Structure formats: C-alpha cells, structure tokens
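Morning!

This is the sequence you dropped in the shared folder:
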Amino acid sequence: MIMAVFYTPHTGKRATIKCGDILINNNTFSPAHCGIVVSNQDVIHATGKGIKIDDIDMWGNNADMFRSATDLTTAEAGKLERIAQEIKDSASYGVGRAAFKSTFSTHTAAEGTHQRLNKYRERLKNHQGVVKHVYCSELVILCYQLAWIESDAINANHRLFIQLDGKHTWPSTLRRYLRSNANFKELGEYKKA
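The structure's back. Tokens below.
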C-alpha cells in the first residue's frame, strides 16, 4: 500500500504532528534511524553525536510516521515525553548496542527484557538516570514500554506496550512491528524539505 505524504517541513501543517508520533527513516535500503515526537513538535532521537532534541522541521531524512490508533490521553502523552526527556538527560549513544547487540541477538521480548525494564523502572522512579547507553530504536521502544507503569510494575498488556526487546531491535524491525500491530497506524510519509 502506498501512503500519502503526511508532512513536509516548513508547510505550516505542524498541528498535524502529535506527541508520541514515531518517525522511522525510509530513505535507504532499510530504515536506519528513528525518533519520538514530544511537545512543540520536537523529536528526541539517539545519534552518534549524542541523544538530541531537534525541531521536527530539522529532521533530516524522509521517514514513515506512526501513531497510536486511538488518541493518546494527555497523561499518556505526558508519560512518554517525560521518559524520553529522562533518557535524553541521562544516556549517551550506545554504538556497541547499535552495532552488535541489535545484530546478533533476538528482538523478541522475553524474561530478560522484563528484568531489564524493572531495573530501568526503579531508576526512573528514583531519578537515577534510566539507561546509560541507548541507540535510536531502543530509545523509542523504551519510551513505549516504561510509560505503562501501574502499581509499581510494568504493564506489558497495555495496548501500546511494544512487545520487542529494544536492546536488540533495528529500526526496520520496529517498523515491521508497528505496521503489523492494530494498536498503531501508519500516518504516511514525512518528506524532507
């Protein structure tokens, strides 16, 4: 299915972008970068130059855009943004994670994933810095996993909990997952200006 162009920078359509939207590059043979939209249409993403926050109009590549199939509540959007910001403030880019962990391990969420998430949840709760090293798809996945904390536990059954191991997931795998999950919708393409 060919999607219509969803957004082109500097066109005055900024109101169409929402907190929690996910951008995944599509301008190479396979997606190589992704980020999450926060308030003011800024994008938080992990790059070789660090964890950055950029205005969406500065996103440098064509990207497929995804959103929750049902609108996020204000509280849900706030949780996603708070976690993205905490990761940005505490982490550095994990080149080893990006190059090796995501390539040579399984992306299926398993017991180790939940143990790691509980460790990150405790750090988040105590404002100790969520994770030390992260790469782009891991950052997006962690936001969508750690946001669903109920009664001091991760709610893996929440409709938007991404059932992937972020530490071992390429952006292309995340895109396939979002396309196949009825709780997310593909909005179309972000076109580089």
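Headline: The helical segments are 74-90, 95-101, 111-125, 136-146, 171-180.

More detail when I'm at my desk.
O.
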